[in-house]
Specification:
17 helices, globular, four-stranded antiparallel β-sheet, single chain, 22% strand
Length: 497
Amino acid sequence: MLARMTPPISPQTLTFWRRGQAVTLDNVPPDRTLLEVLREDLHCTGTKEGCGEGDCGACTVVLGEAVGGQLQYKAINSCIRLAHSVQGMAVWTTEDLASAQGELHPVQEAMVQCHGSQCGFCTPGFVMSLFGMYQNNGGKGADRAQAAADLSGNLCRCTGYRPIFDAAQHMGSLPLPAGCEVNEAATAAALQTLPPAQAGHYLRPTTLTALLQARAQHPQAQVVAGCTDVGLWVTKMHKRFAQVVDVTAAKELRRVETYPHHIAIGAAVSLHEAYAALVSERPPLKAFAQRFAGLPVRNSGTLGGNVANGSPIGDSMPLLIALGASVVLMRWDAKRKAVAHRELRLEDLYTGYRTNVMKPDELLCWIKVPRPVAGEHMKVYKISKRFDDDISAVCLAIRMTLADGKVTTISIGAGGVAATPVRARQTETALLGQTWNADSVMAATATLRAEFQPISDMRASAAYRQTVLGNLLKRFWLESQGLQAINLEAVSMEALA
């Protein structure tokens, strides 16, 4: 009988800040999750394991990171976050909010007063998302719209959400008991005193050059960013990683840079921050950005990681393809002792299902997105079984300009219809130069439905996907003519009440 072969796992020391002091844990393997560390090593069992895939929010904790001397808060899913990625950060769990005398924090007290908990299993996760919201709002409550958006990554089977949204609005009106406050200046200063990550089997270099050198030295290591997908390989597929290279600490890749004709988004920029940059350029993308995933996933995941991962149902790629984005791949050239790079259009990155043209020593470092042009019509549609916090069955993004009623430029990106994110080149050709009217759209609809051969799976049948593709192009046409009521995003629940 053959013995199961597993890679040798070499642990190293992990240090982070919690409850006003440094927490140091020895012998933490590189592929151990933060949830495992909290529950099993520190016995913080208030943080729950629900789905194990970043979908339900029961495991939500809040991270604090010193940026420019200020403390920034992010609610994240601890079940799929690798523990060593929080080296040098502050961590809050549901056990950390009440005062030493047992007085509840306003987010906890609001949940009590508004009857926001029934069975209680999901409650710690909601409380931590509310805590992140409370801190980022300067101790104020949230309006209904922000509560609905920021809590979309937390699922509850009991309350129907209304009392939890009530708590989000009510928490800002409650007093903050002594001992519940966060001394942000002291915490930010304390984080600067924590030791840097060890040079071990979890590598998290702080500069781009060091990152590329680490990749060159360890081409077989697992590359991670926010771990929102790789984390599932650990929790669901039980994969083990002897060596991990984390891109998120490289300071050059944590920036969004603006140029006259494009913006450049670093591979370590979180999805939340990356989409904020895209929305600032194109405000109509806001609703799609909030539907990409729940806020804890967007806080952890990065746009670079999403693109490099190359899932055919990843929502970023159809949008970026339609926007004409390109990617910059970098590597360390040992002979020249310098950084080498190449740039290619995003749709040309992929060669097959989750495979791409990157060499073993290359990393995707930047995503360059053209800035809007005058007269641009842009829309992206996501079709999923659940409106919030769900994976697409079909995603279609369209960018178009018109002159004298004719299509002068057109780019279309699609997801969920092929082995890779794809560009609908045949449909673009069918529309380019045509008069933008019902007849040209009807002809292009048939072309779009025939252009891809999607598969049937748990999310949708092939026939459904093909039908929906055409319907979305028709919706784009109707909306370009001023009809908005056909879009669910335009429906007001208050107006229907």
